[in-house]
Amino acid sequence: MKRCSTCNRTYTDPNLSFCIDDGTPLTTVETEDETTVVRPNAREDDDWNAMAYRPPPPYVPPGTIDKPRRRVWPWVVGIAGAFILGIAAIGIVAAILVPRMMRARQNERPRVTVRQPDNSNTTENRNTNTAPSNTNSNSTEHANTPPPSDHDQVLAQLKDLETEWTIANLNADKKKLDRILADDYAGQESEEGGLQTKSEYIETIERDTQVEKWEFSDLNLLLTGDRATLSGIITYFVRDRSVSFDFKDRFVWRDGRWQATGAELKRRGNVGTDL
After folding, report:
1. Would you tell me which of 94, 177, 189, 247 could form a disulfide with 194, CB atoms 3.0–4.6 Å apart?
2. Which of 164, 152, 187, 171 has its CA nearest to residue 263?
3. What is the CA radius of gyration of the chain?
4. CATH class for the region spanning 151-267
């Protein structure tokens, strides 16, 4: 005899292995009382019909059923899109903030005001003097500007030009000398005489590091239209020594400025200790 462990129904048919009601596997039990045994009615006219045997579905342990896999590519696309948007946002912010920060730093830098040295010829030179402001600059005068006729004005202009010329000589500033000297310049080569052209003057000029300062004295101006001659004395100082020269420089008003066309130089008697 067999019994269903779910509904406790017993069966005597040895061929049955599963309960016909719930499909639970039957277990064999010993028969103790025939009155408790349920037998199917064998009569042909009985209305009871046994249900057809249906094997139970296969047992599947929990957790072994395959779950539908989630798609991964939407997550990859989303993360990549967020990364690209983040980089773009950082680039936009940097493009806006970096120029502002640079401008702010520039505004924070202290402005350095360069103090120009005194252009007086009696101040110490040491060959580092900045050329004085030249009234002959083309930035303030035009090539067709007529020559000035005021004696004091021309004297001041030529004195500034003489200072600029002296500084250019001491520093061997060929570019500055090319502007000061006229193309037809012909000046004294040495105290012994001889003439020197503009190109020869510029080619042979050498830097002088000994002169500390200089000064002009006894200046005299002869002005005739666009021609001017400035004469006087120039004294050079080197430590405890000094030497003086009589000079006579000739100028012409050309291209809206004064240009040197000639120069004469002659050593004077001892002043202090000669060079």
Report:
1. 189
2. 187
3. 59
4. alpha beta
